[in-house]
Amino acid sequence: MRWLTIPDLVELLGVGVSRIRRLIEDHSLLAARIDGVWKVPELFLRDGEPLPELRGTLIVLADSGFNDEQAMHWLLTQEDSLGVTPIDALRAGRKAEVRRVAQALGF
Questions:
Q1: What's the pLDDT score for residue 107?
Q2: Mind listing the pLDDT tens digit for each residue in 62-75?
Q3: Best CA proximity match to 85, nearest among 16, 1, 7
Q4: Is the pTM of the predicted complex or chain greater than 0.70?
Q5: What is the 3-state secondary structure (H, E, C) of the chain?
């Protein structure tokens, strides 16, 4: 899996650093600190934009008690009830199913 840094996102999305930070703050994107650098999985983007299904899913995860680190891990790890990783299911158009599973896992 390819990870993108903030400067990568600035170039790819054609927006400023402040806009990237706003996308992360409003849950349109999720970033993880890796080796001291904030990075976003490339899988969270489609056609040069944040995956539209991601924001609502991140909000459901937060409402279910997941912190950002737990949400990142869950999205990128095989989920038996989905048969794939949640991010792959989102990319395949299975938004409602992913969100139902996320709600059921609430802490």
A1: 60
A2: 999 999 999 999 99
A3: 1
A4: yes
A5: CCEEEHHHHHHHHCCCHHHHHHHHHCCCCCCEEECCEEEEEHHHEECCEECHHHHHHHHHHHHCCCCHHHHHHHHHCCECCCCECHHHHHHCCCHHHHHHHHHHCCC
